[in-house]
């Protein structure tokens, strides 16, 4: 049987520009106490854009925590008070230059619930127009179009290692888009 853990103490260990690290003291269902280290995150969005039938845009970006370059769908964190749909449209335009009028929710999920509350909203759009790329000052990304066959090959060869991108691409594959 699953039981709730009551938070009875909280200590802030670190506050950065994107995350906060807290140590929580919790009361366990059996009455004893334990600690939980939690990364508090504002949430994030990602968008799979089918730029033309059978072709999507991915961005290549160096990810320091992984020490490697990854192919991903455009993504970024939510700004305070920003609606996820608007954030998805903003991130798509910033990272790829493609402008969409609307997006459709694919999935919403917790990225790593064992240590963070980050919730990721994944969207899809197929109505886009080309525009100007304008990434954040500390963001260096390269956007490229991939056909369905190229995506299938990348999936089969394990070339896509980013979870949000895998979720989106498997959804795209399953829904015959």
TrEMBL record:
InterPro entries: Nudix_hydrolase, NUDIX_hydrolase-like_dom_sf, NUDIX_hydrolase_CS, NUDIX_hydrolase_dom. Keywords: Hydrolase. Belongs to the Nudix hydrolase family. One of its GO terms (biological process) is ribose phosphate metabolic process. Residues 39-168 form the Nudix hydrolase domain. Gene3D superfamilies: Nucleoside Triphosphate Pyrophosphohydrolase. Pfam families: NUDIX. Its cofactor is Mg(2+). It comes from Alicyclobacillus hesperidum. GO terms for molecular function: pyrophosphatase activity. This is ADP-ribose pyrophosphatase. One of its GO terms (cellular component) is cytosol. It comes from the Bacteria.
């Amino acid at each position: 049987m699953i039981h709730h853990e009551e938070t009875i103490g909280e200590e802030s260990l670190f506050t950065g520009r994107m995350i906060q690290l807290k140590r929580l003291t919790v009361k366990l269902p059996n009455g004893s106490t334990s600690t939980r280290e939690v990364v508090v995150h504002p949430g994030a969005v990602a968008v799979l854009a089918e730029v033309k039938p059978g072709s999507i845009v991915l961005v290549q970006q160096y990810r320091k925590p992984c020490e490697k370059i990854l192919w991903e769908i455009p993504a970024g964190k939510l700004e305070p008070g920003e609606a996820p749909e608007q954030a998805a449209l903003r991130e798509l335009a910033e990272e790829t230059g493609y402008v969409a009028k609307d997006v459709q929710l694919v999935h919403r999920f917790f990225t790593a619930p064992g240590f963070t509350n980050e919730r990721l909203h994944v969207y899809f759009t197929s109505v886009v127009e080309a525009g100007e790329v304008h990434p954040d000052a500390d963001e260096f990304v390269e956007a490229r179009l991939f056909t369905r066959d190229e995506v299938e090959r990348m999936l089969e060869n394990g070339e896509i290692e980013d979870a949000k991108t895998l979720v989106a691409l498997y959804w795209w594959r399953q829904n015959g888009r």
